Inverse folding.
């Protein structure tokens, strides 16, 4: 007969503490926080038109998500996980804000090399979804 003795647990290292401020890091955004704030103010003149249900993300969060999308080529799905939004809502946000950037002649250049912080973002996405097969997909 097999014994029903409990198996010993292997201690696991605690997950690193997630800090939402990491998303504002200039290594990811390509600009200091003051410049990101100024960009948000510029886009807010045309972009904060509200129709229907209020968005889950604030307008500054929407702009940040769009900057990350363009700068480090994060797709809507991982951005939705990072910002606690749905993939569909994130896709609409990215589309709307890309048009705003274009109408204001603002270009967000892609990062020439992937920032090391992408590994932390990937870990956060995996921790939130609990799905090891869910990879941080880029738009490229």
């Amino acid at each position: 007969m097999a014994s029903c003795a409990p198996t010993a647990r292997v201690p696991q290292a605690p997950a690193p503490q997630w800090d939402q401020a990491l998303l504002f890091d200039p290594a990811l955004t390509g600009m200091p926080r003051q410049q990101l704030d100024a960009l948000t103010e510029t886009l807010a003149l045309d972009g904060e038109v509200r129709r229907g249900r209020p968005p889950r993300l604030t307008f500054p969060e929407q702009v940040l998500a769009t900057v990350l999308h363009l700068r480090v080529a994060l797709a809507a799905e991982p951005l939705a996980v990072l910002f606690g939004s749905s993939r569909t809502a994130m896709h609409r946000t990215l589309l709307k804000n890309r048009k705003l950037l274009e109408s204001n002649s603002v270009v967000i250049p892609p990062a020439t090399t992937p920032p090391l912080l992408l590994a932390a973002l990937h870990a956060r996405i995996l921790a939130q979804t609990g799905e090891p097969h869910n990879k941080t997909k880029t738009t490229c």
